[in-house]
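S2.1 Query sequence (Oxidoreductase)
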Amino acid sequence: MAKGWVRAIAADPGLQTAIRIVGLVDVNLDAARKFAGEFSLRDVVIGSDLEAVLAQTRPDILFDIVVPSARLEVVAVGLQHGCHVLSEKPMATSLADGRELVRLAAEAGKLHAIVQNRRFVPGIRRIRSFIESGAIGDITAIHCDFFIGAHFGGFREEMEHVLLLDMAIHTFDAARFLADRKPIAVYCHEENPRGSWYAHGAAATAIFELEGDVTFTYRGSWCAEGANTSWESEWRIIGSRGTLLWDGADHFRASKVAGTEGFLRELAPIEVPAAADHRRTQGHASVIADFVAAIQEGGKPETAGDDNINSLAMAFAAIESARSRQRVTIE
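Output structure tokens follow.
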């Protein structure tokens, strides 16, 4: 993931101007040295002790691209050293840790935000604008399907609740963004299907209740071979006057009711205009640019921790529901 972040910075002229990488920290020093060479990062401090490298380089920003179990300690150290911190997702491995990160950032007077890069793909921004236009009326339901046979190797194949915590949170966050509603409750069934190469929880089905009587459903699997969906999921968004379909890639189809008679009313197609703001459709680069702009201009990034914790709460409520086999309210 660190490579993805650095490539995003290198590909964006504004970020190239705004950001200079001054240090690399890794428990494996050889990996850090190899990384520096691959990206021609000269005159950078390389070390395995985060506090020592922060003390030596005194950076404005810490990019936290560690395994989730290390996140709380890494972010806390960065904030203590006066850094704004941008973290990989998930925000934390527990809701209590997420709340602690919100508290620590507020106490330090620094920004802590999460890379929810799916918010910044063209399709999601395009749908948000389309919904706001009122073209299909008031949103009543959002349905998502995610089915991919992903062979990662490494820590993901050992994680508990791997789909809900490491991947589904992207879709949960995007759905919350599109609906512009707070989550209220969830019922979730989780499983690890026969043939799964994951240790736990590679598949899940969840029903969320959102404010305003909006329903969001999620069906997903990371061990579904044979018919992969997009990484962005396949979406059906239902409004009071019509429906939008998105395949998670480049195909959009929307229709609204045009007739007033008959068992099935006549429909009329609706154009789904492209996203207007190109700067907010570049995935990782847009998240980083949004974060840097907030620092420079004194604003708040869209994926700030005190907002993103609502998406984290969706994931942990789904996990609790799967454990208890009960509907769980989301606080």
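Residues 305-324 form the longest helix (20 residues). The chain has a mean pLDDT of 94.
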